[in-house]
Amino acid sequence: MLRIHFTPEDLARTRISAAPQPMWEVLLSMYRLRGREGGIFFEEWRRSVAKAANLTTRPLADLASQSGYAVDFLTPTLRNLSLAEGLEALRRTPRKRLRADLAVLAGTRRLPSWTTGLAEGRPETLTRLADSVERYFTACLAPYWVRVCGRVEQVRARQVKTMTEEGCESLLAQVHPSARWTYPVLELDYPVEHELRLDGRGLCLAPSFFCWGLPTTFLDGELEPTLVYPIEHKVGWSANEAAHRPLTSLLGRTRARVLEVIGERPGTTTEVASRTKTSLPTASQQAATLRAAGLITSRQIGQSVLHSITPLGLALLAEG
Q1: Which of 319, 313, 225 is nearest to 261 (CA)?
Q2: What is the 3 state secondary structure string of the chain?
Q3: Which of 192, 212, 230 represents a domain boundary (last residue)?
Q4: Among 15, 41, 261, 304, which residue's Cβ finds the most Cβ atoms within 10 Å?
Q5: Is the pLDDT score of 101 beyond 90?
Q6: pLDDT in tens, 154-209
Q7: Residue range 118-126: mean pLDDT, rounded
Q8: Of 203, 230, 257, the domain-final residue
Q9: CATH code for position 256
Q10: 277: phi then psi, degrees, rounded to nearest 5
Q11: Domain of 249?
């Protein structure tokens, strides 16, 4: 049982993460790779990334047993929500945090020899670990990240609406099928007995694409209070060709591709033209149409225009 203790200040400071947390999705997707939970929802994705995953997951797997504790420092919760920020936070993990988390992990199983350098905070070992995370994300998550973000955004928009119209307490009562809310305590099913006292810090609610079954949080209650919980899924979400055929029919091949590359990461008109292999006037025209439809936003930066996808655009990509 997980019990989260609120004060009135905590209710006022509770927020919903603005997007998926890349470091959490890395960790939780590894569990989906190594287990059979999620069945048909993740099977196609497992098959598509299995070979690449075998080459990139070893250091990560050493720090996250197939069930049970995974070191807290692997999943820094950040407001900027970018992989680059997460990797930088991992490289800068204080030695005290490394030693404390590895000591807990060592109490559950024998650790490989390379973790000695990690416990000592050696920069080269931390860099090796961060590089492994980046390779794994690039190979196994990046090809699907637009759809991951879009699906999480759909859930987030619904939950923001609940919080706005019905209040934070109503959302807490619905955040997971096992949730039981009786002020001032939120109870959720959990593998072990765990108490989390917010003490005025508020709670970051983080809907997660690769979380499955029970919610999860940090072992250390001193870290930023975060509740990561699963969202609903659709069969076939990872099927590339099938997912984008309706979108192409709706928008046209070029415009759909422009929306997709902007969804992958923001870019200037020149960058969008390069990534879509179109001319600069074509990229500009397609971006203008997408902006008029509310699917992207554009802002002037010096002599360039930077295009970013909107929540509506992400939701459209996620649905295909």
Answers
A1: 313
A2: CEEEECCHHHHHHCEECCCCCHHHHHHHHHHHHHCCCCCHHHHHHHHHHHHHHHHHCHHHHHHECCCCCECHHHCCCCCCCCHHHHHHHHHCCCHHHHHHHHHHHHCCCCCCCCHHHHHCCCHHHHHHHHHHHHHHHHHHHHHHHHHHHHHHHHHHHHHHHHHHHHCHHHHHHHCCCCCEEECCEEEECCCCCEEEECCCCCCEEEEECCCCCCCECCCCCCCCCEEEEECCCCCCCCCHHHHHHHHHHHHCHHHHHHHHHHHHCCEEHHHHHHHHCCCHHHHHHHHHHHHHCCCEEEEEECCEEEEEECHHHHHHHHHC
A3: 230
A4: 261
A5: yes
A6: 899 899 999 999 999 999 999 999 999 999 999 999 999 999 999 999 999 999 99
A7: 95
A8: 230
A9: 1.10.10.10
A10: 55, 45
A11: 240-319
pLDDT in tens, 57-79: 788 888 887 667 889 999 987 77
Q: Quick one: pLDDT at residue 242?
A: 45
Q: If you average pLDDT over every residue of the chain, what do you get?
A: 89
Counting every residue written for the chain, the total comes to 320
- The Cα diameter of the chain in Å comes to 61
What's the whole-model pTM score? 0.79
Are residues 208 and 138 part of one domain? yes
